[in-house]
Amino acid sequence: MFIISSYVEWSFHEPYSGVYNFEGQADIEHFLTITKQENMNVLIRPGPFISAERDLGGHPYWLLKEKPSLHLRSSDPNYKKYVKRWFSVLMPKIVPFLYGNGGNIIMVQIENEYGHNDLGNCDKEYTLWLRDLMLYYVGEHAQLYTTDECDSSFLKCGQIPNVYSTVDFAAIVNVTECFDNLRQVQKKGPLVNSEFYDGWVAFWDSPRPIRYTKDIIRVLKYFLETNVSFNFFMFHGGTNFGFTSGANTNGTTLDKSGYRPQLTSYDFSAPLNEAGDPTEKYYAIKQTLKKANFPTGSTPKIAPKGNYGTVNLLPVVSLFDSVARRLNPVLNDVPLCFEDMDINHGLVLYETNLPLIEGLNKLPLVIKSLRDRAIIFLNNVKLGTMSRSYSNTTMELSITGSNQKLSILVENQGRINDKRFLEDRKGILSNVTLGKHILGPWVMTGYPLNETSWLKTQNIQPNVKPPAFYRGVFIVPQDNKHTKPLDTFLDTSGWTKGVAFINGINIGRYWPAVGPQITLYVPAPYLVPGLNTIVMVELEGASKDFTVKLVDKPRLDG
């Protein structure tokens, strides 16, 4: 039996409080209808927390701007209020597809890996409330279940009475030990690994993790021999388009080192790669299933890719230019975080005039709480960068005289999604000091970078330097062999760090200066026959010749 496991991302469907989106790619009913037509049963995972290496674990950002502050994944009445409201909109769309109602959803997950709670707060009141809320909609028409990692303490914390417990793990663990731990909380019934990891999440400035096919096949054979139920995670790799990628942390507090932003690509070294093409891992898995007399479908063909060549870009406008400041500035005595200015993602420019300092002075500039990365400018001249990831939130400034303007361009690199320190607000969350001076007041300008159509009316400015918008056009040809656009990959080699748009669609963050991801996946539906547009928001350094390439092969290990 073929089963598809799918998250429902709250932030995707309720991007603003009380504003819902179920159109286009967000049409969950259409998606479920297709799965039924393809004779696939479904494990649906509505959260509210999903993790999934997505920004804030799938929570909408506006939860972080609620006053008084609420606590995510807890029995906080304010959090429960919004979860209940969200489910009152979502679940009626899902109920008709439940197995007991003649549909193909056989299991509904409650939360996700709740037992992995690094702060030691195992809030049973919350998980019992969530179970009862889910039961109100699901009843006995599908099986409720939980998923937790194979540590016995995680499974015990995540277990909910009268809800089926499953485990998740990779091929590198002790499999029998994991199932022994599962049996401590799920005394009977089939053993289920609801997330069998065949790859792993990748991070900027780190090599992509390797999960060897031989290990996956070894454990797969064990599953088949012992009648274990399992679900590959991921079977088809994906992409964190736009600003949807999240971050992990292994730090001791929100502002200590250990913050690790995730790649735009979620290829995951999966059996089907980011573009949906079969890999050697796919063929090995299929061969193993065939030998075990397990039914397998047809092998997908490797789709042709477009090699559309070199694209010349030209500088259009600096982020410092008034025309690029699409939002009204916010004035305040102290810096405000993104959420307090109702800004979800992108950038915020913090500006202040420095106090009069006599003589030439070298003074430390300190941002105690920076989330996540800042470029520091004095009178619009770049001095350097600070980064939460590397705990370098101090730099020395040489200051003399008056009329000195300090500008700090802060980038949200993705909110934490890995259970610990989930309430990850962005921007500057402390005073900024220069020596003994507390700086302010501040003028703060947000750049959510959610659309680029306004650039069409702007003329080229050859002398503009980053941070700036760059624009170029390219042709997708039509011929007898390919009458429609093909998938392609945007090669950002030579550029430094920023965000790329194709035909107004944000295809994600790029950062070839540190890698490992060099190319961004561009699906064919994002392209049109004929003239297409690229916009690059380059923060630090454009390529010397202002060019990018559209190539037919990805580079994810640069």
UniProtKB/TrEMBL annotation:
Domain Glycoside hydrolase 35 catalytic: residue ranges: 3-291
Active site per the UniProt annotation: 113 (proton donor), 195 (nucleophile)
Short name of any one Pfam family annotated for the protein: BetaGal_gal-bd
Residue ranges of every copy of the Beta-galactosidase 1-like first all-beta domain listed in the record: 335-449
A GO MF term: beta-galactosidase activity
GO BP terms in the entry: carbohydrate metabolic process
InterPro entries given in the database record: B-gal_1-like, BetaGal1-like_ABD1, BetaGal_gal-bd, Galactose-bd-like_sf, GH, Gly_Hdrlase_35_cat, Glycoside_Hdrlase_35
Gene3D superfamilies linked: Galactose-binding domain-like (2.60.120.260), Glycosidases (3.20.20.80)
Sequence ranges assigned to domain Beta-galactosidase galactose-binding in this UniProt record: 467-532
Keywords associated with the record: Glycosidase, Hydrolase
PANTHER family: BETA-GALACTOSIDASE RELATED (PTHR23421)
Family the UniProt entry places it in: Belongs to the glycosyl hydrolase 35 family.
Protein name per the record: Uncharacterized protein
